[in-house]
Amino acid sequence: MLEHGAPRKLREIARRMRDIDCDLIVGGGDFVHGGYTSTAAAMEPRFAVLGEFLNTLDRPLEAVLGNHDLVGVSPADGSPPESDPARFFRSTFGLKETRRSFDHMGYRFVVLDSVQPLSGPQYRGWVGAEQIAWLGELLTKTPAEMPIVLCSHLPFRSMFFQTKEGSEAALPANLVVVDANEVLALFAQHRLVLVLQGHLHVNESLRWNERTFLTGGAVCGAWWKGDNWGTLPGFGTLDVAPGRCDWEYLTPKLAS
Question: Which of 42, 83, 131, 149 makes a 20 to 30 Å CA pair with 206?
């Protein structure tokens, strides 16, 4: 996140975002780059840039944990792994947990931690039994008619690989929530109207019955090197109302 003029570009993006009149900002994860295989010391400058971005934004931001936001899971230099890789993320955003819920303007937002570390540098999209139990309990306390927005870094639904590789291609485990169906089944008697997801750096919108799945692109595009499969660096604005989700992906031109 220090390469390709990223600190300056992030400051500019924060200023552009600040000029938009909105009720809520949700960040879909990967606020820093490379944390998973880096040491805490190596990540300090990147978290400093993130802090500068947040200060320039000067607005509350609800953060979703991304795989790059985990620090020292499997350091490439052979250093011992961090005992709590998510503590840097939680500290930055003042969070007690990486999963949580909050209510905003009549909607219940459910934020899940969908990154499960595996051996070495590997991970997969996974919610797991503990969060599923927590979510089930939360939904027992949620009125059936209350609209719900689900937020996850890894996507629950996407046609990314079918577009990229061919119509029969399936997303691998590090690009999708593997236990997505089990999680979504919990909402059978509830109004899950929107799923916000990231990770793939593409602008994608899917509609399945009454649910909209939005993959929100990335402010860095293809890691500050241009577009990623046609999606330029940018961020989205969303106007949500009963029966309607109007999504617009904005691609501000940044000085190179």
Answer: 131
